[in-house]
Amino acid sequence: MQSCATENGAVFELGPRSIRPAGNAGRATLKIVHDLGLEKSILSVSSSHPAARSRFIYSREKLHQLPSGVISIIKRQSLFSKSLLPTIIREPFVRGKQDHEDESIYNFFKRRMNEEVAEYLSDPLCRGIFAGDSRLLSLSSCFPAVYQYENQHGSIIKGAFLTKEVPDPSVMSPLAKRAKEERWSTWSLQGGLQTLSDKLHEELLQRGVNVKMTSPCTAVNFNSDGRLTVAWPNEELTIDHVMSGIPAEKLANILPEDC
């Protein structure tokens, strides 16, 4: 998260610009916001707001509005060569992969829907969420729920209707309840989403957590007593547990060769 404010008060997000409140993950994030006392900084967008209902894709040198309701799905949209309705009706009858092997997001939607959906819906979605190419991103890693819809129910649409997430009581908060009652689509914070990471950093420091910034980890070694030694330039620390948030390829470079 990185927010940049201009002299006239405009805020530009160099990372994610909004967060969805849906699901246990969304509720957990709202609980963090609540616990950090940032409720008054919330900027919410309801699902009925034009900003939530009117979404556009820039393609072929013009803006195309995406479908946002049943009528718009029935009609042919400028982004597509034909109505999406036949594609949606056909999707539950498309055979799933028998081996359940992972595949790229692009190939998944091309196989289950059509090439236009993969090109003009799934790819822009991935660029907006992950800043990545849908042809290179793993479906099971990025959209595990969609991956399971096909594996367990044979269809995205069937899976979406038949799968119901069980709310986790541990991540409930007054803010999550408010988001549900007000039907939030997305939310952000005054001053930008970096406000959240800055406040979290401040809270960790107050709790005595040692936060190392711009300190690249050079090695992680496993000791005979079951503990681990983590190395930085000119420093080592022996600890009980390590939680990694870096790409697997980068992690492999700092782990022992026989790991």
TrEMBL record:
Example of a GO cellular component annotation carried by this entry: mitochondrial inner membrane
Amine oxidase domain: residues covered: 8-256
Gene Ontology molecular function, alphabetical: oxygen-dependent protoporphyrinogen oxidase activity
Keywords: FAD, Flavoprotein, Heme biosynthesis, Oxidoreductase, Porphyrin biosynthesis
Superkingdom to which the source organism belongs: Eukaryota
Top EC group: oxidoreductase
UniProt pathway annotation: Porphyrin-containing compound metabolism; protoporphyrin-IX biosynthesis; protoporphyrin-IX from protoporphyrinogen-IX: step 1/1
InterPro entries: Amino_oxidase (IPR002937), FAD/NAD-bd_sf (IPR036188), Protoporphyrinogen_oxidase (IPR004572), Zeta_carotene_desat/Oxidored (IPR050464)
Reaction(s) catalysed by this chain's protein: protoporphyrinogen IX + 3 O2 = protoporphyrin IX + 3 H2O2
Cofactor-binding details, from the entry: Binds 1 FAD per subunit.
Any one GO BP annotation for this protein: protoporphyrinogen IX biosynthetic process
Statement: the UniProt record of this protein carries the keyword Flavoprotein: yes
EC number: 1.3.3.4
Subcellular location: Mitochondrion inner membrane
Family to which the UniProt record says this protein belongs: Belongs to the protoporphyrinogen/coproporphyrinogen oxidase family. Protoporphyrinogen oxidase subfamily.
PANTHER family xrefs: PROTOPORPHYRINOGEN OXIDASE
Stated role: Catalyzes the 6-electron oxidation of protoporphyrinogen-IX to form protoporphyrin-IX.
Name of the protein: Protoporphyrinogen oxidase
Origin organism lineage: Eukaryota, Metazoa, Cnidaria, Anthozoa, Hexacorallia
